[in-house]
Amino acid sequence: MDAPPAPRAPADGTRTRIVRAAAVLMQRQGYEATGIKRIAQDAGATLGSVYHFFPGGKKELAVEALRHGAQEFTDLLRTGLDSSDDPAEAVAECARLLARTLRDSDWTDGCPVAATALEFIGRSPAIQLASEEALGRWRELLAGKLGAAGISDEVARELACSVLSTLEGAELLCRVSASEEPLHIAGRHLARLIRSF
Amino acid sequence: MDAPPAPRAPADGTRTRIVRAAAVLMQRQGYEATGIKRIAQDAGATLGSVYHFFPGGKKELAVEALRHGAQEFTDLLRTGLDSSDDPAEAVAECARLLARTLRDSDWTDGCPVAATALEFIGRSPAIQLASEEALGRWRELLAGKLGAAGISDEVARELACSVLSTLEGAELLCRVSASEEPLHIAGRHLARLIRSF
DNA sequence: GTCTATATCTCGATAGAC
DNA sequence: GTCTATCGAGATATAGAC
């Protein structure tokens, strides 16, 4: 039997490395500020490879990068939500996880879709749809956790919406002010709100 | 006595028109997607005039545009907050005002700093500082309203932070999903949270 | 202060050898 | 699949007449 693959295999496919590099750059500075040449460079690939895998060009790559980043954010949320049976405590843990991730990355690794989504409101159906799907899945994930704790479906869906809104906004405030405070405060207030139902 | 000036004077200074046009475009699509030629065109000015008033170029204009947009957003918040003595009701009215403004503008006229701020986290001290100042003033405005209603200064400052986070995040969700729902839900939940103190 | 023309650069995208 | 060279367009910024 062969040795198991390394956790972060250097033999990751070129296509995967390109998508990952694009996702990171777009998360940090949005779509327009991110050049394809820089993406190729960070991915250790050439420009020709980028257009080989994404003949539709930058927009096509961006949609895939959004999906990739959204999946990683989903995993982070799931980790936080799985940390406790109490949904109020679980949401507070999500806020702590997000705050730690932001601080450890020098306030760069926030929501993977926010910056790009805001650049394309009403200007690109493909990008907007990918962003909407990401936000929708996070809302459903949160609603599921709240519903599993006995909150009615209707209330859970609305609460999930506000939890997501607050976490997204608090991330913006944290990044702009280079401080964990907004997310920590948000976590406490969201726990209080959830417990009031 | 001369006739009073028109409410929206066509004789607005060229400089003011440039700043306004820049603020609108940056609010809708961020900094990088906004070209100086387009700004000049929308302002009814020439490229030469832009560089005459802003010799520092696009970045210098952007800082001024952020300040201009922030002031307008402050006025909107103040209108909402003045609508009721009850801070819970006043915050809910702010959410309604933001939702209406978004819908009436086809989801383009949201927070005037969010898109640009996210493009420049850790990459431009001037832009980041202008964004931070805007968010800080909105937080103080909200904290003042809460404090005036008898909430302790410490609690009011923290509540104001979460109110702002939630409104910012709900605006993002509204714009991406082209729906007023997230802001309406946020208004109700924020009112409930405020009344719990 | 306003305007036109243009310099300079970088972008996304393509072509074609290997 | 990978690479280099390059195209054409559009960006910011500048120069200088008026």
UniProtKB/TrEMBL annotation, chains A, B:
Pfam families: TetR_C_13_2, TetR_N. The keyword Transcription applies. It comes from the Bacteria. The keyword Zinc does not apply. Residues 12-72 form the HTH tetR-type domain. Residues 35-54 bind DNA. This is TetR family transcriptional regulator. GO terms for molecular function: DNA binding. Keywords: DNA-binding, Transcription, Transcription regulation. The lineage of its organism: Bacteria, Bacillati, Actinomycetota, Actinomycetes, Streptosporangiales.
